[in-house]
Specification:
There is one protein chain. The protein is α/β, with parallel strands linked by helices and 221 residues long. 39% of the residues lie in helices and 11% in strands.
């Protein structure tokens, strides 16, 4: 695995790439991609960072694992490539945006359009073996992405962190709540959403209200 990451992230994260755990992780990922079908494509592993530079990130959404079906994952959490059917969680995200902001349900589930506006769409684990959810968990990715969250908390101010579901909410301990805004809700997956833990959380309008108060450009969701 060759680490190709946007230059703006090299300063905050350069030490991580030299640590033993990251070298072991690199070896593991390289071997997995050689011996199995894995997602996303190698060039997209760090896509979230490429689309949302460190100094331009305004909002952080934390996911867990890349999609493990063919042609779905594009390196951004909850996002799929153009022309790919929307997975259930993404459908519920778009339904909430429709209710919250009156924005029509979109054709494309590719969230690069959000990332380009400063929304870091960060999965805790950046790779996965095809059809095997969680197969690359606990191999070192979580250490790396926890550092990403911690560095954003330490070196930036006034970011909005969206923590959806139990897994993401645990990341709150990495974030300085006095410097940043933390919005939490249930996960957009049908299991959580259908129990009333996702819909009407109004996170998307809340994010824009926070950005507006700061005099920053709002996100076109």
């Amino acid at each position: 695995m060759t680490v190709q990451i946007h230059n703006s992230w090299l300063g905050p994260l350069s030490e991580e790439f030299e640590k033993p755990y990251f070298k072991e992780l690199t070896h593991f990922v390289k071997k997995e991609y050689e011996e199995h079908i894995c997602y996303p494509k190698g060039k997209d592993i760090f896509a979230a960072f490429d689309h949302s530079p460190f100094n331009k990130t305004k909002v952080v959404i934390i996911g867990q694992d890349p999609y493990h079906g063919p042609n779905q994952a594009n390196g951004l959490c909850f996002s799929v490539k153009d022309g790919i059917p929307h997975p259930p969680s993404l459908q519920n995200i778009f339904k909430e945006i429709e209710t919250d902001l009156g924005i029509p349900y979109p054709v494309s589930g590719n969230l690069e359009r959000w990332a380009e506006q400063g929304v870091l769409l960060l999965n805790a684990t950046l790779t996965v073996r095809a059809h095997e959810a969680g197969s690359h968990q606990k191999k070192g990715w979580e250490i790396f992405t926890d550092t990403v969250i911690r560095k954003l908390s330490e070196e930036r101010e006034g970011l909005v962190f969206l923590l959806w579901g139990g897994f993401a909410k645990k990341k709150a301990k990495l974030i300085d709540g006095k410097k940043h805004h933390i919005l939490t809700s249930g996960h957009p997956s049908p299991l959580s959403a259908n129990r009333g833990y996702w819909f009407e959380n109004h996170h998307f309008s809340q994010v824009n209200e926070i950005l507006k108060r700061k005099g920053l450009e709002q996100i076109t969701w």
